[in-house]
Write a structure and sequence with these properties.
The protein has 364 residues and is of the alpha+beta class. It has seven helices and 25 strands. It is globular and about 75 Å long.
Length: 364
Amino acid sequence: MYGVNGQWNAYLKIGGVEYAINPVSVPKLDWFENVHQNLPSLNLTLADKTNKFASIATAGDGVPIELTLGDGANSESSATFNIQGQPNIVQGNGYNYIHINAVLDKVSYLRSIITGLHEGTSASVLSAIASQHGLQADVDSTSDSQVWLPNNKTIASFVRSVADHGWIGEGGCLVPAVTSAGVFLYKNIMQAADSNKVFGQGYLPIMDWSAQSKAHVANHVRGYGSTTVGFDVTGAVSELGKITFSLFSNFLSASKVNMDSIGNLGAKIDAAVRPSGNTHENYQKALHQNRRIRSLFSSDINILVGMATEFDLLKKATVIPTDQLTSSPNTTVSGKYLLTARTRSLVRNKYVEKLVLTGQSLSE
């Protein structure tokens, strides 16, 4: 293990061979986990002064990378990654820079085609699939039993399709994700567990922060409302419009004034495929509800911290950032958010994490 007490610690193996890791020998290290990507990933740049590791890295697809990375004080994380494709080699300063892209070493989950019939609730089916491909499962129970047909999708694509049609009740919204610890999550984000983490002045310190709204896109897609029109199993016209859901805060990124102006149909009309009688009773309603609620999570707060934060994706945290103009908490963006992405990095002899926390608005 290499490192500096209180700043960083790390251990790296490539192709089973240990690499003496430090901010000079590894000038770039970014370890990503994100609810929008199917598996955690790693971007790595090696400064290979002896050409020792160039031959290992150029073996290409499938070379394992074992990585442990921590803040030198409180915590560390470990994972095994799988190099994807041929690394890039660039010469400079008299030696080779090797640029490597890798994913968590669960490649069958990402690439395999799934076949057959899968009977049960979405939670039980996805839990079984995750276990078959080396992932631990942490799922919320659902009420949507049926036979699920993969139609020759990849496993990762099938998981997203099932989650879109998963039903956990009125006002619920299901989201899948895979963590760096190899845990498959399938969670109702409207009843997310609270990590009890508080970031801000007087709590866990924030080095830097920014707030970003994606509402200008999300609102036009479904945030201002949408209607799903199709036929039910009897042939009668079925129309799905308004939904019920709860708020994390007192404000929403979609304006009620604009919603009222647009009207009951909303800003988008979706055509529903007519069911053939082999789906659960809320199959189309689930798709409508899940998409609508996800579209309302359109406000991100990005925070940079100098420690290992130790809580999972899709858990709540409280953020109270300081406004530089007033040196007081910025009340516009303070509130509860879901952790939707984390980047662990080694930067200038210091371990840092960038957290992306997502909510329904930028105001508590």
